[in-house]
Amino acid sequence: MSDIINLTLSALIDKIKNKELSSQEITKAYIARAEKSKDLNTYITTDFENAIEKAKKFDEKGNFDYKLPGVPLAVKDLFCTNNLKTTAGSKILSNFIPSYESTVTQHLWDEGAILLGKLNCDEFAMGSSNETSFFGNVESPVGKKVVPGGSSGGSASALAAKLTPATIGTDTGGSIRQPASFTGTVGLKPTYGSCSRYGIVAFASSLDQAGPMTQDVSDAALMLDVISKYDTKDSTSVNFKRGDYFKSLSSNIKGKKIGIPKEYRVDGMPKEIESLWQDGITLLKKLGAKIIDISLPHTKYALPAYYIVAPAEASSNLARYDGVKYGYRSEGENLISMYENTRSEGFGDEVKRRIMIGTYVLSSGYYDAYYLKAQKIRRLIKNDFDEAYKSVDAILTPSTPSSAFKIGDKTDDPVSMYLNDIFTVPVNLSGLPAISIPAGKDKNNYPLGLQLIGKAFEEQNLLDISYSMEKELSFKNNLQDWWIK
Ligand code: GLN
Q1: pLDDT tens across 424-446, in order?
Q2: Can you tell me the distance from the alpha carbon of 426 to that of 294, in angstroms, rounded to the nearest whole number?
Q3: How many Å lie between the centroid of ligand 1 and the Cα of residue 415?
Q4: Probe target for ligand 1 pocket from 131, 175, 203, with the most ligand atoms within 8 Å of CB
Q5: If you placed Cys at 29, which of 4, 143, 309, 413 could pair as Cys (CB 3.0 to 4.6 Å)?
Q6: What is the pLDDT of residues 275-317, one digit of tens each?
Q7: Per-domain residue ranges for the chain?
Q8: Is CATH 3.90.1300.10 what the domain over 2-256+461-473 is classified as, yes or no?
């Protein structure tokens, strides 16, 4: 059994195709491990009995030509799953059972994957440590009482702890890449419009994007092949010619031009992050890439702009939770007090904070000063990238300004929590693709990630560069399984 859970997704698929392993054996191995790993609090909802049933059916008459034949997968609880509770980590959706399936999860099942259950996340994907979930915080397998990052913290923790061979998360300001960086896993945020947002609980619609979280880069390419498709159900889905990402993977990056943005050398950045970045630069040179210093002058405005735009969109998106149409309802003397009670009991503190900020910056009198200004800054940030991409093919930065921190360390200081996203949010504001790959460790042995940012719709380029780096880095998490009961 320990052999099964140690296989990468693509190795697992080979074994299924060669009939060396059955879907049932694999599914049971992951379930058995999840049962012993409850202390990590990765799952909000499990669907184990159904998973075994489906695995049995797959073994009897499944299609082995599928891309994910009989592979069990757990996914972030932000993806609506037909007939299975979908909470978005919130009390207000704690009893919500969708009658439809998100497009990206449907793609997984259409390629033969089997749902294991729904993974914990920050409430409405707002957070960087998975501490805002109504269902409790998630622990990272990399260290006791350490956060897995957020908001896809349950996904990252489950993946690193080998409770699922791969998973998918969502990234509005860094929620795939930052937890990947904290847990020594690979996280890819595709170009905005690459993966359908249909059926994903909305946080900030102009920024949200689903993407793979995997053990290595080739698994990310494989998952992207499955989930990136044009979808008429999402008006922002883009009908571009997608690559055959997995098959086309190449580690030849000779002559590629990689930009190093000087504005990402932020004050107070730990030495270990500096040297991680420097080592990444050295490695890329060794692999034949050309390193070019670039400038992204508006970088320092990205975080403040994000924390205006994202709450503004959130306040509008979350207006639908009124106790009438979805989920939790509290009683009240009249309609208005029913709304008030439902929303004050149903939402947690961080979500309320964002709704208030969002409502404020959209209100008449403040709209021009805040929201409109933030949108203008957003354009300038995008222009910086456009300018840079005239001379480079991709950009290398650290994924996060620090390694994982302890649970509780930043909960009283939202601004220091928001600073986690300093290297990831410019990417969402510009709609670009970016990947975080594990590249080193800090003094506590906690993983550190490097981020590669690409041109829009050029995921293949990003995958190729990170694939070639990964080979040389040969990162190993070497977790001690201390959480197993
Ligand atoms: N940490 C960021 C936030 O709290 C990003 C969240 C996300 O990408 N979903 O908004």
Answers
A1: 999 999 999 999 999 999 999 99
A2: 15
A3: 13
A4: 175
A5: 4
A6: 999 999 999 999 999 999 999 999 999 999 999 999 999 999 9
A7: 2-256+461-473
A8: yes
